[in-house]
Write a structure and sequence with these properties.
The complex is a heterodimer of chains A (112) and B (112). Chain A has 112 residues and is an all-beta fold. Helix content of chain A is 0%, strand content 54%. Chain A is built from no helices and eleven strands. In chain A, a hairpin with a 4-residue loop joins strand 7 and strand 8. Chain B is globular, with a radius of gyration of 13 Å. Chain B starts with a strand and ends with a strand. Chain B is mainly β and 112 residues long. Classes of the chains: A mainly beta (112), B mainly beta (112). At the A-B interface, strand 4, strand 5 and strand 10 of A face strand 4, strand 5, strand 9 and strand 10 of B.
Chain lengths: 112, 112
């Protein structure tokens, strides 16, 4: 079945770049997503990438997609303390049904 | 434009009690869904709806019922609460293309 895997924890220094990685199993997913969750809050959609794209850039965020290896990454440039949160990777599964399949989430800790 | 709203924010139930978690959206989205979030497990899909009058089961539907009588509302009913249903519940909505899905702030439920 479909599965999404992420590393659980990443710690970086303020000003450095952060790279959060994700692997997924369903090659037929139409879209892949990155969500951010701050403590006690809901999920905020950060960005998404269409499956026929290799890269998408949005200000400090860069998403890279390697379809061959089923690998998705989120790079945050110039990481700030306000970026400390849990980051979830998700795929929308076969047939673009909207049924999101989430990874376990990566906790990003930004040290001043 | 409030987006996706959920009530209540917090709820404590005793085993065997029933209750309804409310979800509403004002974006005229056809697609709505319910997820539960448990520590270390990401989010898992409970039920979803592709439009008024149409609902279907997700990954973990047991113990929950849904209905969709209007486009705006998608309530989640717990028929007989169990401690295993202690979780944070998120409602989401998306347009017909289901490219972007927006999440509500969540309901934190504790079943004693």
């Amino acid at each position: 079945g479909e599965d999404v895997e992420q590393s659980l924890f990443l710690s970086v220094r303020e000003g450095d770049s952060s790279v959060i990685n994700c692997t997924y199993t369903d090659s037929s997913s139409t879209y892949l997503y990155w969500y951010k969750q701050e403590p006690g809050a809901g999920l905020q959609l950060l960005t998404y990438i269409f499956s026929n794209m290799d890269m998408k850039q949005d200000q400090r965020l860069t998403v890279l997609l390697n379809k061959k290896d089923k690998h998705l990454s989120l790079r945050i440039a110039d990481t700030q303390t306000g970026d400390s949160a849990i980051y979830f990777c998700a795929e929308n599964g076969p047939g673009n049904t909207g049924k999101l399949i989430f990874g376990q989430g990566t906790t990003l800790q930004v040290k001043p | 434009n409030a987006g996706v709203t959920q009530t209540p924010k917090f709820q404590v139930l005793k085993t065997g009690q029933s209750m309804t978690l409310q979800c509403a959206q004002d974006m005229n989205h056809e697609y709505m869904s319910w997820y539960r979030q448990d520590p270390g497990m990401g989010l898992r899909l409970i039920h979803y709806s592709v439009g008024a009058g149409i609902t279907d089961q997700g990954e973990v539907p047991n113990g929950y019922n849904v209905s969709r009588s209007t486009t705006e509302d998608f309530p989640l009913r717990l028929l007989s609460a169990a401690p295993s249903q202690t979780s944070v519940y998120f409602c989401a909505s998306g347009d017909t293309a289901v490219r972007e899905q927006f999440f509500g702030p969540g309901t934190r439920l504790t079943v004693l």
